[in-house]
Amino acid sequence: MKHILLIVVVAVALWSCSGSGVEKPTVTVSLPPQKFILEQIVGDAYDVRALVVSGGDAENYDPSFTNLMSVRNSKAYMTMGNIGFEQAVVDKIRQENPGLPVYDSSRGINFIRGTHGNDYDVDPHTWSSVANVRIMAANMEADMERVDPGRARQFRANLKRFTATLDSLDADYRRRLEPLRGSSFLVWHPSLSYFARDYGLHQIALGGAEHKEVSIPALREAIEEARGSGASVFFVQRDIDSRQAESANERIGARRVEFVPLDYDWMAQMDIVVNALTAKR
Ligand SMILES: [Zn+2]
Fold it and tell me: 117: CA distance to ligand 1 center in Å?
């Protein structure tokens, strides 16, 4: 095990020395959707690294040594704001690099509470909303101005362009989802709470807050609620959601749609959700 660790460390050291002096400065973020958002702001002026890879389970993630090195060598660390591992990362980094700026990308968002049991006070899936991503993009732009004031004009212009894209995306979703206002959809894990709020939809989470098996009585009750709700789409996270998600859906008969909430291509994942809900049956 020690050998493997050493090889990884050497590989990272070599990698970060390559590029013969034209190496880009790095900013580290927690999750791939944040990387997508920040890249819209910084363009190719920065190397943006995410601690969690797409498809992972952010709520049960334990950052590795190499990931911590990446944070330590960055110009800043931008947290998603409400993910469990972030405080541990900040605590560890603070010991060795007390001056590293740490910014919360989700500050100013109107949080949803109570969807994640006792594990989380605030629903951490803030990026499942176009409106929230607009706030996050503005936060990240302001933070980058602090990190690199010389590029402020460039960052502002990029933010303006990205905000216009988000506004037209939101308007498009609003128009298409308006006929569905008040209706329900199913998920295994409650990862679309903010999305549901934005468009007046009702999210029914069958599996609860953890990516684990739920008790038989709890599942039976959730299936009853699902069947009575008229919901016809069931969003599941491939590889993470429990096998129970499959057996539950056999009794519900909804259309199973796979999506990846932590995917880098945030817009493509939002499209998957909206397209599934608005598809002709
Ligand atoms: Zn969650």
Answer: 10
**Confidence band of 242 (pLDDT split at 50, 70, 90):** low
Residue 74 and residue 120: Cα distance in Å, rounded?
28
Task: Name residue 236's amino acid.
Answer: V
Q: Which of 185, 164, 166 is nearest to 33 (CA)?
A: 166
Identify which has the larger pLDDT, 58 or 163: 163
| Distance (Å) from CA 120 to ligand 1 centroid | 8
Centroid of ligand 1 to alpha carbon of 256 (angstroms)? 19
| Mean per-residue pLDDT, 142-148 | 98
Q: Which residues have a Cβ under 8 Å from the Cβ of 242 and sit 6 or more positions away?
A: 188, 207, 211, 212, 213, 214
- Kindly report the backbone phi and psi dihedral angles of residue 38, in degrees, each rounded to the nearest multiple of 5, phi listed first: -65, -35
Domains of the chain, first to last: 24-105+113-172 (3.40.50.1980), 180-278 (3.40.50.1980)
Distance 211 CA to ligand 1 centre (A): 9
Query: What is the Cβ-side half-sphere exposure of residue 80, based on CA atoms within 13 angstroms?
Result: 28
